């Protein structure tokens, strides 16, 4: 039973789930302890970050589709995607998820949850990025090393 549960968690635990879980905490904070500090600024800045995050995520995902390689973490890629938005960030989808989380926190005026943003980044780096980079390093070798040397992990 434990083995099956571990396999299921390994397959279902994905970065958007972490982002949505932390966003749910921020939403709950906004409902239980509304702050009403940011007002219209929070609505505009938060909405802009969510929209920008969705746009970046879609643009980044499109590169994977066009390169015919997998978007799913923990799968072996057949292509090292380095063009388009990947010239500026090695992890634009995770960066987009971070922007969405920050945007929701600002929109909901859940300022007590701002520490969830760096927490999300640390979780994603430890649970996903390091493993993905190890697979890329193993699979693409010098090509990945050169890419990693010229493009930052986040921005």
Automatic annotation (TrEMBL):
The keyword Transmembrane applies. It is a multi-pass membrane protein. GO terms for biological process: methylation. Gene3D superfamilies: 1.20.120.1630. One of its GO terms (cellular component) is endomembrane system. The keyword Membrane applies. It comes from the Bacteria. InterPro entries: Phopholipid_MeTrfase. The chain crosses the membrane at residues 48-66, 99-121. Pfam families: PEMT (PF04191). It is found in: Endomembrane system. Keywords: Membrane, Methyltransferase, Transferase, Transmembrane, Transmembrane helix. Its main location: membrane. GO terms for molecular function: methyltransferase activity. This is Protein-S-isoprenylcysteine O-methyltransferase Ste14. It comes from Rhodovulum bhavnagarense. The lineage of its organism: Bacteria, Pseudomonadati, Pseudomonadota, Alphaproteobacteria, Rhodobacterales.
């Amino acid at each position: 039973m434990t083995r099956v549960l571990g396999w299921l968690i390994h397959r279902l635990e994905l970065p958007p789930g972490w982002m949505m879980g932390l966003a749910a905490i921020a939403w709950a904070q906004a409902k239980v302890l509304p702050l009403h500090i940011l007002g219209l600024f929070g609505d505009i800045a938060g909405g802009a970050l969510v929209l920008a995050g969705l746009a970046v995520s879609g643009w980044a995902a499109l590169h994977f589709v066009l390169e015919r390689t997998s978007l799913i973490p923990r799968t072996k890629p057949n292509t090292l995607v380095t063009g388009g938005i990947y010239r500026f960030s090695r992890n634009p989808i995770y960066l987009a998820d971070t922007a969405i989380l920050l945007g929701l926190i600002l929109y909901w005026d859940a300022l007590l949850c701002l520490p969830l943003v760096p927490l999300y980044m640390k979780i994603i780096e430890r649970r996903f990025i390091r493993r993905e980079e190890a697979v890329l390093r193993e699979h693409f070798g010098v090509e990945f090393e050169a890419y990693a040397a010229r493009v930052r992990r986040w921005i």
